Fold these 4 entries.
Entry 1:
Amino acid sequence: FAVGFAVKDTIENYIASIMLSLRQPFRPRDFVSIDSHEGVVIRLTSRATILMTTDGNHLRIPNAVVFKAIILNYTTNPERRFDFTLGIGVNDDPVAATEAGVEAIASLPFILDSPPPGSFVEMMGDSNIVIRFMGWINQKETDFLKARSYAMQKAREVLAEQGFSLPVPSYNLRFDDGVLPFQTLKSKPETEADKKQPGPREHVISVEDVEDVEHVEDIEEMDVSPEQHLQEKVEDERQATQEEDLLDEDSPKE
């Protein structure tokens, strides 16, 4: 039975490799997600599709799995949208905040004008109003993670400068009598030595502290170019290992 199952898997993977080579759902060096596994395509063999993950590891996915899987190809369309959320105070104006954040994102040189950046109120909680911001980039010219990071910093900076509060989630804890997870110690009379001990020092945020907060670096100095380290590793792997590759860059792509 074990031999039968092994032969069955081998035949399934081989047939799937033929179908994938005809369909060509991805090319070598494409960044894809196959059943939630992300990586850059190295090659397609008769048994498996080989990816290099973002942390540099080899990932072999059986072709039978790839053929039936949901495949997301990030490289096919160079235009890609990122999004992130920021929270403002419940007493702040969400319409003004969305407008300010969108203008801040649109001011970044790597953000596409079409489709334009956008935003919407995602949730109104007890301690904050959550706003989701979105922007589009060209992945051939701009790194996705860098662009998202810079846009997030820029939007947050502009909202803070315009007086919007950026609260963190707060929680109220209530302890009923008799259910405390610790034992209350009886207080003892304060001695002279205790009075001389310095208490915790309070830190008051001054205007000078706020002015010293670092701003997003100058737009002209932003390095948002795509990272090539992973692509270089994939290319080295393709050159070093002369293994069969059923992917053909000249064939029609699905």
Entry 2:
Amino acid sequence: MLVRNAESEDGQAIKINDRYSIINVLNPDPYPCELGETYPYHSVPGLFTPMSVLTTEDSGIGSLQNNSHLALYGHGVLVGLVDTGIDYRHPAFLTREGNSRIYSIWDQEDQNGISPEGFGYGTEYTNEDLNLALQSEYPLSIVPCQDTNGHGTAIASIIAGNVMDSASFRGIVTEAELIVVKLKPPKNNLRKLSFVHGDTECYQETDILLGLNYLTQKARELQRPMVICLAMGSSHGGHIGLGTLSDYLSRMVLNPGIDAVIAGGNEGSSRRHYYSRVTDEAHNHIFELEISKQDTLFGMEIWSEIPARLAVKITSPMGETTRFIQPQLGSCYAFDFIFESSRIYVNNITLEKETGDQLIMIRFENPSEGIWRFRLVNLEEEDYAFHAWLPAGDLISEETYFLASSPDATVTEPGNAEYPLTVTAYNSLSSSTMPESSWGYTRNNRITPDIAAPGYQIACAYPDGRYGYISGTGAAAAHATGTIAMLLEWAVVKGYYPTITGYDVNRLIIRGADRSNHGYTYPNKNWGYGTLDIYSLLRKLNL
């Protein structure tokens, strides 16, 4: 559980910063209504999924690296990654001598070794461990850490992979050093509360938070600047940057020499967001959701703003209807439909603690295939607006979607955080944003994404020594992460601005963004403040 300033009598609370702590709750088989009744919504970790020819000239990177006065390759900079892991044996992450460019790996899934001090689970592998493994005929017998998904390896290689002429590949900061957190799968009790199948690949918020904490501790110990790439996302939350992970990241980048780059998400064309402003005299509204037979277990969230107080009635494809569920502080209601196997759980929460807004949480178990209808009525008898979101990524199929959906406000959490850099993806071949890239703004109309970076068919490393391509906002975030590593080398390592914070870096990146496409007004929901261009930024700084 996520709690504020927790102090447990048995000393089991893990403090991650001055505001939040994590407590392990032993409840192997939770009843769904415990979410909202026993455990407040904001205290239950969300579940996150991965968001994913390197076109360096499009970001001004090639021009900058070819300038002998300002040649920036990430020397002295740490790149942090919280993802699916990394193939440490891949040539993209080795020096010319065959040693590892990875300072350390925290494998949260491996419980057979020594865990990092203060974290209590997983195994930490040092650079010495990795080099010992690389010298062995059987490296995995010494360091068994692998990236079976490949997403983390791809993201790391875009940021910091070695030049490989034989594969026509190069990363952006080839002299940076990597620190990697390999996330473990989520606990089964969290899957049950969140209505996510056991075989769906996803990762829990508390593990991500602890991974970020591990990375920043390493940066402080080594007294070196660090940029962290978080290419994970979730539609869980209020989409205004006030969730625990979003708030943690915003506070983190206010520190000198620490920055974070976040993938904006790939939900723009997924039809998983619905929005309406209701102004009719009856103050009620009906919206519809097509549910596929593939999707037997998932949740949906409806968010409104004060002073609205919404009641909801749900109708199944066969015409069975619940009563109106009124807003309350902590109640949960289970409904079994008589003529079908569908069961739904509804929490209509008057006051969600982190945002202060109303949240209607609906979870489906074996829902009937077809069109479900939701009727909302405002008990205050006033005009109102609301948003509804379905899960992001691979948590549901593409065949479950809202009719009359909206691509707006589809940036995934924590991409709605205020101070980190949130990145969307564009196709550098067509100079257009990618259709699947999530759109801004936040639910309260703050600007996100911040900038756009190349994210279509980006060359990358794959596990087992292979190379390939990756597309999506994860790839774009990796591109921006490499760029920020260059800027941190200039500012901190070379001493031009040694006290620069991550937030300062992000504002400079925004100032230097290319806004030469006069077909748009900036900032906007698709491109943010423009396209990534570090060379333009340093030119504007008269360097």
Entry 3:
Amino acid sequence: MEWQQIVGFHQVARQGSFTKAAEVTFRTQSALSQQVRALEEELGCRLIERIGKRRLRLTEAGERFFRFTRAVLSSYEGLREELQELQGSPAGELRLAAPFTTLYHLFRRVLQAYPRRYPQVRLSILDRSQREVIDLVRQGDIDFGIALESAAPRDLAVRRWREVEMVLLTPPDHPLARLPQVTVEEIARYPLILPPRSQRSTGRRTLEALFREKGLDYRVVMESSNVELSSLYVELGLGISFATLVKGLALTGPRSLAFIPLSHYAGPDFLAVLLRKDKIISGYMQDFLDLLFAG
């Protein structure tokens, strides 16, 4: 088994296509096909099945071998980083993804301080939805992702970070803002601004489950994946919305909003750092986490 075969198969499995894998590895499709066939002959089993002209899928053996290649490549990258640190000049890449609001409000200090401490480390920061963050961590495309602890799948490692609470957003003079506690029946009476269903928002799922449980009709007047945009149109009177916010954290700009706790419907939750369980954390990555948790 050769190193190039491991890398080639890994990219074919990861990209789901010989064509895309060839672009990533700077090889021809025929060369990749030959490498995969050589692996299958050596291992004595099929790793990839072709479906039609362009699609492919991994066999059960292929899935297991893909997990093996992922672990091998992760170990290799970790070793390279450790050897660089031994030379006294840590150099590598740190890849992070989080939703917009989290990046905007909670990462300014870290992303100002860290590059000064590690100028040779290449930072790659992605603004992604929670669902996309989880997928990126699972696939090994990023080192760390930020998501709600309650949304984290069991196959990922979770490091609890900041406590959050679910709140209802209304204009300050809204009828709901005058109530000591808001009920789901009262929420359903007003137009709603919600995240798209495609994002699998924990808050939206919680709210809609309550509506179904009570048999309530409701109207969504706007869908937005950006809490800042939603809060703007709440302020303008288009509808009411909700957000999962770090306790005590204000939204961007001079928004005139009421923040109504919904803790009686949504239990305590936390923002968490997600990473693969087989992730090798180099020294400069651990320093990033230390800086993050220190704040």
Entry 4:
Amino acid sequence: VNQLAKMRYMFGGKATLPVTVLTMSGAGMNLAAQHSQSLEAWLCHTPGLKVVMPATAYDVKGAIITAAREPNPVFVVMCKGLMALPGEVPEEPYTLPIGKANVLREGDNLTVVAHGRMIHEATKAADILEGEGISVEVIDPLWLQPLDTDTIINSVSKTHNALVVHEAVRFGGVGAEIAAQIAELAFDYLDAPVGRVAAPFSPVPFSPVLEQTYVPNAERIAAEARRILGTG
């Protein structure tokens, strides 16, 4: 990580390092603490790296091809808990625009920004809340570095409320950076402080029951959404 990220800078921009690193992230498979970490925040904190975290079959293929064609190092962070998730994937090659988020669902009352495995839990939470008359917009940043701040801010300026969700531990996570940018750039639009749902600051338990409790889910996301909106 250190050498890959710094070489172009150290050679005055004259060197290229077309390196694609595929790595795994997250819990949910009872693999114990040493095999269940989410380290995307560490990668994003390293200048010189691009970091993409696809969570659908379509985005995984597109992210890998995009990374392979990029002249500088890209980390493709894939979620272990989604490896068996089916999805439609075109046979022909295609790429994804670097630094562009996906708006997975449009809504008017709350913006939920979730990445990786949590986009699926956020979408489930949006379904739950829809039954309560709450309209939720779900955004998948996809590229964590560079981050598509514009799409996030535009959404918050419409909904006036924001909730950030990720599987990694809450302290120092990517969600903290996203929440900070929302607070800085969209403060005047907010009706309430930015909320966060994430894992506790603890190693991932090996016990299936404890691990299930450890990982954020749709119910926790919906509960935090109600708290932000003052409906629960």
